[in-house]
Amino acid sequence: MQTTRPEPAIDDTLRPIALIPARGGSKGIPGKNLRPVAGVPLVVRSVRAALGARCLDGVWVSSDDPQIGQLAEQAGGGWLRRPGELAGDQASSETALLDALGQLAEVGPLPPLFVFLQCTSPFTTSSQIDAVVHALQDGEANMAFSVVPWHGFLWRQDLHGHGVGINHDAHQPRQRRQDLQPTYLETGAIYAIRTARFLQAGSRFVQPTLPVPLDGMAPEIDTPEDLNLCERLAPLLEGARQPPANQAAADQR
């Protein structure tokens, strides 16, 4: 007989936690969340980024895969065992998040905010997580998410296959890029959400939402080509974050 969990208690004095759904299966890239970028598995990258965020107090990985769970624990996070029926190709991230919050609610109250991180964004930084959480805490939105500015001209096709301008009027003289109305691309990396509203809605996009523009590139890994690209980008993106050797030595003196 299926049992229902009691309504979770929320303690407004608790700091946010991070939840990282990381199932074992993937059609596009088998074992995707275990695949390394620059020698570090994707799930470990997400755990490390969350552990480095100053705003968080706890990092949990939801997975049906023991290897992923063990890696998460070795990296300093916790492992929430996800039921197999919530880890199939048709299972949404929201079902994993609801299950994870339900498990945590069985051992204590939940924080008023939580952060949902995706392993498919390998270059997420701790400071970016802090920025999205602080934006939510400082405003009245129910959810904040990471975006990057998009400066190009966007198009779609109409029913006849003809081009239609989205962020510009194709029937008028071409605007300068700097005169376009600002648009943003959702990175898919970071979502900070008010817990009570998420539990009510069951969706990450709890209105009103707050896009938080971040600097830098934010590639996502959905295909083998994406994985190969990120492997090539890693030395460039992560090397730029490291201080020069002479500066690092000076800081240690």
Total helices: the number is: 7
Structural class: alpha/beta
Main sheet: strand order: 5-4-1-6-10-7-11
CATH architectural grouping: Alpha-Beta Complex
Give the overall form: globular
Q: Please count the beta strands (DSSP E, at least 2 residues each).
A: 11
Specify Rg, calculated over alpha carbons. Answer: 20 Å
Q: Could you state the order of secondary-structure elements as H and E?
A: EEEHEHEHEHEEEEHEHH
Could you tell me the CATH topology label: Spore Coat Polysaccharide Biosynthesis Protein SpsA, Chain A
What is the CATH superfamily classification? Spore Coat Polysaccharide Biosynthesis Protein SpsA, Chain A
Helix content: 25-40%
- The CATH class name reads Alpha Beta
The overall average pLDDT, rounded, is: 89
Strand content: 15-25%
- Supply the number of structural domains: 1
Largest sheet composition: 7 strands, mixed
- Ends: how far apart? 64 Å
What low-confidence regions span 5 or more consecutive residues with pLDDT below 50?
243-253
